[in-house]
Amino acid sequence: MLKNTLLQLTKEYMGDGDEVLGRSLMYNYFKIRLNDNNLPKIIVFFNSAVKLVTKDSEVLDFLKEIEAKGVKLICCTTCLKHFDLLDQIECGTPGSMVDIISLQDNADKIITL
Question: Which of 41, 51, 59, 75 has a Cα at 20 to 30 A from 85?
Answer without folding.
Answer: 41
